[in-house]
Amino acid sequence: MCGIVGYVATETSLRGSEVVAGGLARLEYRGYDSAGIAVAGDSFALVKKAGPLQALLDELAAHPLPEHSCAIGHTRWATHGAPSDANAHPHVSFDSKIALVHNGIIENVAELREELAARHIALSSETDSEVVCHHLALAYAKTGDLSAAMGDVVTRLEGSFTLVAFTPDDPQRLLAARRNSPLVVGLGDGENYVGSDVAAFVDQTRTAIELGQDQIVELTGTEVSIRTFDGEPVEGTTYEVDWDADAAVKGGYPTFMEKEIHDEPAAVADTLLARTDDTGHLHLDELRIDPAILRQVDKIVVIACGTAAYAGHVAKYAIEHWCRIPVEIELAHEFRYRDPVVSEKTLIVAISQSGETMDTLMAVRHAREQGAKVLAIVNTHGSTIARESDAVLYTHAGPEVAVASTKAFVAQITACYILGLYLAQLRGNKYIDEISGYLDQLGRMPGKIAQILEKEDEIADLARSLKDATSVLFLGRHVGYPIAMEGALKLKELAYIHAEGFAAGELKHGPIALIESGQPVFVICPTPRRPLLHNKVISNIEEIRARGASVMCIAEEGDEAAARAADHLITVPQAPTLMHPLLTVVPLQIFACALAEAKGLNVDKPRNLAKAVTVE
Predict the structure, then answer these.
(1) Predicted TM-score (pTM) above 0.85
(2) Which stretch, 198-202, 532-536, 583-587, has highest mean pLDDT?
(3) To pair with 128 at 20 to 30 A between CA atoms, which of 11, 52, 105, 341?
(4) Which residues contact 283 (CB under 8 A, 6 or more apart)?
(5) Active site residue 2
(6) Partners of 207 in beta bridges
(7) Is the pLDDT reported for residue 300 higher than 90?
(8) Is 430 marked active-site?
């Protein structure tokens, strides 16, 4: 969950700490509780502070670091040890020879601590990261070579980690290693960079290198060399980042979340862009699965967590309808622990905004061990899940900084539609003109989302009127059901109040007991063009109104029955039933954001949450 930035150059200056501080600021969205920077040049120095990044920046302003050619920085999310100055990174070894930052969790830390105790090496923090730092120093003392020492240490570590370290003995060299935790390299002119993701250095360079599993990278200002933990040289894959630093700023909106909600038309449009060839046939970004295997798939399992899982629930309705393949939705953190039934005819669809969600990554690996093929839907090029999957469908939503996902969600749903139509094309379930018709309808969705955004003030007024609510319920049927769950999740994440999403038909099987006078209830209403579904939802509304609920209804324009039944009506443009989620979720995102702001809460950084959950 933490953020790492590293810098190394051929010349000594103050630039490194400035680059690292800027990178840490762009990585704040990952979630953190403390931050620090260490530098090496003619001298070795560090500063670290618990609390917001500004506390670190204030300390740097009051006590500037010396000139240097190497700098590392870190924003920490507590796993071992509470947030404190002592537990903040970077850590320095007992002999002051190594400075190190670490993401992840070391699972055999107890054994490693005992070895340090036997050598009478005292710890100044509660972290597993400091333990690694001291072991790296011990290995360096033996070899006199930091690269060799890194190779020795990483083979002894169990768990997930990204390590970045330097020694003041060689202040123009940076070493980094990764296992089950993200790390990318940025290539500059006379200087090079590493980071948890490209946001760490995108204002300096857009040329990056993917690092694979169990790899070590050694950087100077002019050279980058990569090898496996076993010492085999690796030729890194270079790619160009297709967005710049301006994409990670608020763009005039008060919060990143508001900006990203307004980015949704572009997120959907960009995800749809260039998906067909000259013959009108759909194609995926990276397909390393024989089409013959995909034609034989007899079951699809979507693995994801949180918001991404709700995108998977929407996908189930579309893929089953278009392809006639059964689809299961699995929470990734439950999947591999329950002995799931998968085979070579099972397609696993892994959905993750960051492509680094550890629960999902572990589920991907388990599925592949069982012989299943894996297709990833991710937003981040070069991410671990993308690299370890057999096929990739990128969402092209651009960077999402706010912790609570909005534009990534609609982009994931769009990508799921593309996948469903691709499989229908491949398996002969749909003719090419039918697929073209669906793509045309999807192509109209960005404009329809933009129409909903014009109602932002109306929805925000409703939210402000409910800022003292202690509970809000959400009901939906068919594709409205996962949107009800997502609406409830957004409210929990942002406003810290009780919220639940239910299938509307489940109401009379228990949840109706929660209805009392004044209880706010959102109802996602199906199109009247599906009268069987629509009439049942109108009946649900009447049931809860009869018990005193205050009903907010999201319904299609022209839905007179919903207008009569609702206490407050929010309309969305007409659209095919399966594509409704792209529209109906938008008012719920605006509502949750506005209600949280009315309560004076930070919508970009909800408490206890982080953007990329890179530990299990």
Answers:
(1) no
(2) 583-587
(3) 52
(4) 275, 276, 277, 422
(5) yes
(6) 240
(7) yes
(8) no
